[in-house]
């Protein structure tokens, strides 16, 4: 293991972010406004239910209202869209989060696109993605934003570095690639059809793992001194990188759990407070 390997503590970063929100929440409360995040869960996927519960608990601890909307597995796309439309016009709701994934028979993209831009605190709409790519999104996707927040908190360099992103999902791989590009990194995006993946990953000064496969990224794929950011979360609290092996090579690495995850939730809370502030200004 590299002697100076830095463990990027997501809990510490998240705590700092939430501490900064306390005064802003109080100012809103003084105006009679309680920031409110509506979370929508469709079906009975246990992992999704756990995520929603974690987000609700985080809201409660900070003084943000959590409005849970739960639908059965057989809910139709039209029923889900109607519920989102009701939340869009509810003045007490400032942020809307549709828990991914939804059951396969639902048109998830159509549901995402229904979310009002003013309340898209998870950055899932097409317009939100476009604004993020251009560098001026109010609410960029939470996990990509969390990755950059960790790098900034630890003052890790981005400009001029070669970042390799493994994964191209519209709410993680693609937006984090755009955010790194906007910070003047040179970005390579890898995916399931990439050939010679290991050798491409070895070029990365920054490696972002967002592939959804446990321990997929191997230690011998990592360039000595690279920064490894593991955005994966698989059954058994396992990330997308082989943590022990990759830590041997990396200069800095996020653990799983207690890495990117807590900062993702803190970012969601931050966006919800910001949405409430914008609504208060209007």
Task: Walk me through this protein's architecture.
This protein folds into two domains: 32-116, Rossmann fold (3-Layer(aba) Sandwich), CATH 3.40.50; 141-260, NAD(P)-binding Rossmann-like Domain (Rossmann fold, 3-Layer(aba) Sandwich), CATH 3.40.50. α5 packs parallel to α7 (173-182). By secondary structure, the chain is an alpha/beta fold. The chain starts with 5 loop residues before the first strand and ends with a helix. The chain is globular, with a radius of gyration of 19 Å. A six-stranded parallel sheet has the order 1-9-8-7-5-6, with helices on both faces. It has a three-stranded parallel sheet with strand order 3-2-4, sandwiched between helices. It has helices at residues 10-30, 46-62, 77-88, 108-114, 126-134, 142-153, 173-182, 197-201, 243-249, 260-281; strands at 6-7, 36-42, 65-71, 95-98, 162-166, 186-190, 206-209, 227-230, 252-253. The longest helix has 22 residues, at 260-281. It has ten helices and nine strands. The protein is 43% helix and 14% strand.
Question: How is this fold's topology laid out?
Answer:
Elements: E1 6-7, H1 10-30, E2 36-42, H2 46-62, E3 65-71, H3 77-88, E4 95-98, H4 108-114, H5 126-134, H6 142-153, E5 162-166, H7 173-182, E6 186-190, H8 197-201, E7 206-209, E8 227-230, H9 243-249, E9 252-253, H10 260-281
Parallel strand pairs: 1-9, 2-3, 2-4, 5-6, 5-7, 7-8, 8-9
Helix pairs in contact: 1-10, 3-4, 5-7, 6-7, 6-10
């Amino acid at each position: 293991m590299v002697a100076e390997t830095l463990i990027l503590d997501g809990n510490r970063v998240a705590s700092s972010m939430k501490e900064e929100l306390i005064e802003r929440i109080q100012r809103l409360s003084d105006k009679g406004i309680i920031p409110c995040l509506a979370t929508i869960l469709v079906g009975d996927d246990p992992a999704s239910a756990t995520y929603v519960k974690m987000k609700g608990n985080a809201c409660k601890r900070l003084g943000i209202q959590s409005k849970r909307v739960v639908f059965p597995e057989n809910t139709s796309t039209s029923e889900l869209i109607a519920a989102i439309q009701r939340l869009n016009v509810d003045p007490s709701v400032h942020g809307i989060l549709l828990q991914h994934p939804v059951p396969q028979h639902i048109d998830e993209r159509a549901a995402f696109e229904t979310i009002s831009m003013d309340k898209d605190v998870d950055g899932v709409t097409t317009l939100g993605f476009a604004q993020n790519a251009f560098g001026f999104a109010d609410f960029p996707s939470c996990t990509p934003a969390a990755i950059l927040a960790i790098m900034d908190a630890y003052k890790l360099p981005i400009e001029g570095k070669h970042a390799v992103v493994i994964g191209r999902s519209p709410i993680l791989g693609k937006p984090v690639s755009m955010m790194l590009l906007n910070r003047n990194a040179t970005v390579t995006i890898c995916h399931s059809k990439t050939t010679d993946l290991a050798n491409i990953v070895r070029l990365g000064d920054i490696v972002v793992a967002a592939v959804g496969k446990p321990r997929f990224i191997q230690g011998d794929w990592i360039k000595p001194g690279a920064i490894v950011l593991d955005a994966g979360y698989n059954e058994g609290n396992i990330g997308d990188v082989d943590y022990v092996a990759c830590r041997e090579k990396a200069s800095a690495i996020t653990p799983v759990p207690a890495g990117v995850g807590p900062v993702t939730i803190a970012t969601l809370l931050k966006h919800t407070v910001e949405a409430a502030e914008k609504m208060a200004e209007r």
